[in-house]
Amino acid sequence: MIPVNEPLLDGNEKKYLIECIESGWISSEGPFVKQFEDRFATRVGRKYGIAVSNGTAALDAAVEALGIGAGDEVIMPTFTIISCINQIIRSGAIPVLVDSHPVTWNMDVAQIEAKITPRTKAIMVVHIFGLPVDLDPVLEIARRHGIKVIEDAAQMIGQTYNGKPCGTFGDISTFSFYPNKHITTGEGGMIVTNDDHLAEVCRSLRNLCFQPHKRFVHERLGWNLRLTNLQAALGLAQLERLDEFVVRKRRMGERYNELLAGVEQLQLPQDKVSYAENIYWVYGLVLADPVGLSAEAAMRRLAAEGVACRPFFCPMHQQPVLKRMGLFAEEDYPVAERMYRQGFYVPSGLALSDGQIADVSRAVKGILP
Ligand SMILES: *Cc1c(COP(=O)(O)O)cnc(C)c1O
Known about the structure:
By secondary structure, the chain is α/β, with parallel strands linked by helices. It contains twelve helices and 15 strands. The longest helix has 19 residues, at 242-260.
């Protein structure tokens, strides 16, 4: 079976982990955490990096730190992971959804303005699959209406928008280091911001809102979202290789593009747009309408050929848990719905070989009617 993801851990990972064990520093108090935060923030070009236990936690803290709560509206894409919506809902705020663009698969920024109301508090942009959201129009709308921007850059480590690093565009921007991201700590995440106050609030939320002088007296409810020194050790070693990893992922995507070019039953990912080149977090495929094959059936056939695939995101407005809450009744977002029905991604991990890419491409062509 060709796995859907396998990370590369053959740099300084082992060396730094041994340092943790030999020094006895394994908790979040260890020195690698601060080093990883500083180097990551510098790499992204931001003042503060706050390491957290995962990308979902980073989003939870971002929403809470911005003071989003009951009655506030947050504009976000429907085509994304559930992590983006969790804290919006739990805080009593109202998620307001936007459909995807059929070519870039990102939120269609032309649909944002119409969703603004006096209650809109923030726009959450989520860069999808390796190509950034077209940020300039979003930032212009946010500025004009005095709205905050949360940037979920989990899939965009090492990517740029018009030459500027993704993760520099939100009032708060977040990352994930899950093993299928461009760099990994096993589980992990990072919040970045230039805002002194937001950084302090996020740091406090991460650590149960302990107070420096009255440790066990709390003025606010936080979480334990701390990253361990062991994870930060991995992160530091991975960060050293980020440029190499981005080049490698991009080359993998281009190779798939070459091998699958001209297959008319498939929509391939957009390789570039005016503001960025795809860095192929995952290599996604959308089956063309007349093929008459669902993503589910295609993935089943590919599994039988030894190729592990994963479905695209189920849109937020189709989530049973959210529908049961009475959310998004009567709403439909046809582009995202079609992507979910007909989209899936093929093995895309950093350890994938050229030979495996050729095998996967051959298998994909073989299962098409
Ligand atoms: C992976 C991912 C997350 C969640 O990160 P975890 O570390 O798995 O919690 C959030 N948003 C996006 C866009 C992601 O790709």
